[in-house]
Amino acid sequence: MLQAISLSKNYGTYLALNQLNLTVNPGEVYCLLGQNGAGKTTTINLFLGFIEPTDGKILINNQEVTASDERRRQYIAYIPEVVMLYGNLSAIENLNYFSKLAGFEYSHLQLISFLSECGLQSTAHEQQLSGFSKGMRQKVGIAIAVAKNAQIILMDEPTSGLDPKATAEFTILVKKLAADGRSILMATHDIFNAVALATHIGIMKQGELIHTLKAADITAADLQELYLQTI
Ligand SMILES: Nc1ncnc2c1ncn2[C@@H]1O[C@H](COP(=O)(O)OP(=O)(O)OP(=O)(O)O)[C@@H](O)[C@H]1O
Apex CA 190: angle with CA 185 and CA 193, to 5°? Predict the structure, then answer.
């Protein structure tokens, strides 16, 4: 479980995040929407410990963690907009390398099973990453998160630049990751995809969470209208 309690962040005198309260329970997918500059990436960077909060707390499984806390690495995986992996290594080699870095040793068969579970076609397992599409790289990134046994997955703009088929595959995969008990938080501009895969949706504006909704309670059209009213 991931929680922000009255989390605030100033850049100099600029208040980028103001008293954010947010909880992502196991099994939940929380989508953060908001215009450019609303504070979504700042929120993710605070959870990752890349930046220190000016005020407030971050809790993982009900325990407060500081920016340098090693437990973040153990519990949290991050899938950035463009997943950075080694282009000259194959999918299996990348997965093996990053799993080992996290202290996990897997057999070849287990590595294959993680990649297959995350939807990477078997013909790509031994291929170099340099030829992979964005969606294929993302699948390897998610396989690494699964192999590291990360219970919390943070994503920034995961569907930007994905074609409709890759977006549909991503949606199925994220729902499965959550159904397996993970907590997933993503920043996105994709309103329709947010309704398709989220359990919870938050709309941010100028560093504040101004609406929180259950995805099941709203249609994509109504969410779009609400979003447009807020900006
Ligand atoms: N390192 C920084 N120094 C100063 N201001 C910053 C810094 N990082 C972000 N900001 C400002 O904080 C505000 C929130 O930025 P943030 O990147 O969190 O927004 P966002 O919602 O993720 O936007 P986008 O959708 O464009 O990624 C913006 O006004 C931004 O200019």
Answer: 75
